[in-house]
Amino acid sequence: MTPSARGLTQADQEAGAASTQDTAEVARRRETVLVSGLASDSHTWNLVFLQLLIEEHGYDVVNLGPCVPDELLIQECLERTPAMLVLSSVNGHGHQDGLRLIKKLRQEDGLRALPAVIGGQLGITGGEDGGHAAELVAAGFDSVFEDGAQEIAAFRRFIGGIPQRELS
Q: Distance between CA atoms of 160 and 164, rounded to whole angstroms?
């Protein structure tokens, strides 16, 4: 094989093109996770933290921000078909808002199997007894991460267990 003007053989150029093609294919296969606050929650720092944490696990993240109305959240899920929906609450109304939202979400044919999790401050009394978690899971959430440092490690394990879908 003759070297090209840049000193690379044709085989080197083809290998480089294949590598670029592989990189593009991997980029196309990255899953998207939707991160959102709930309708009554105006906090943002938690959403930015979650976005960065999820991106560390190789996902693209669409962060819808705080105070997202239920209907808009459902519409975004239907249009984007994310690998997972992550909801966060800081104001203590996560239990109420989460129950209302998950019931609406699970009524949509295209969203019944969407992995959906909620976490943060789910009640306003502090020192929750875990009753909110059981009720939220029974309503349709795949997992609940109540406020606490050990929950971050549990959430990391959960993210790592979401299978990557083959995109067409």
A: 10
